[in-house]
Amino acid sequence: MDETVIFNRHGKSVYRVCYSVLYDFAGKPRGYLLGKTLFDLRGQHRGYYVDNVLWDRMGRVCGFMDGARVNGLELPQCEVPPVPYRNQPEPPVPEGLRELDLPGRFPAWSMMRLENLLV
């Protein structure tokens, strides 16, 4: 995955995935993908990125890529993302991270706002 934009439940662009790092549009790194598992910069498990959808730890939809599909859930139209600032250097990945299995997926929006997922 080179670069992908992740949108929230309202279709607003929030994060960009550049290889295995999630950046905000100010160019600040916010998290890591290890396989399909999402971690914040402290190494805390925050969710999963599967089938172009960002799922929270409980298997509910937190964000999505343009063109994603979730059976049973209507996704909003995506807004045009802003022009990103230059990315800050990629921070070191915390040691001991391991890929985790996604529990069952539910076609419902998460209580967690995408903007708050990696704060």
Structure description:
- This protein is mostly beta strands and 119 residues long.
- It has one domain.
- The protein is built from 1 helix and 9 strands, in the order βββββββββα.
- A 9-stranded mixed β-sheet has the order 1-2-3-4-5-6-7-8-9.
- β6 and β7 form a beta hairpin.
- The longest helix has 4 residues, at 114-117.
- The chain starts with a strand and ends with a helix.
Provide a brief overview of the structure.
The chain has 119 residues and is mainly beta.
Characteristic terms for this protein:
single chain, nine-stranded mixed sheet, 3% helix, 119 residues, globular, mainly beta, 9 strands, 36% strand
Shape: globular
Which structural class fits the helix and strand makeup?
mainly beta
Approximately what portion of the residues adopt beta-strand conformation?
35-45%
Number of domains: 1
- The topology string of helices and strands comes to EEEEEEEEEH
User: Over all CA atoms, what is the radius of gyration?
Assistant: 13 Å
Uncertain residue ranges: none
Main pleated sheet: 9 strands, mixed
What proportion of the residues is helical, as a percent range? under 10%
How many distinct beta strands? 9
Strand order of the largest sheet: 1-2-3-4-5-6-7-8-9
Estimate the mean pLDDT confidence: 94
- Tally of separate helices: 1
The end-to-end span amounts to 23 Å
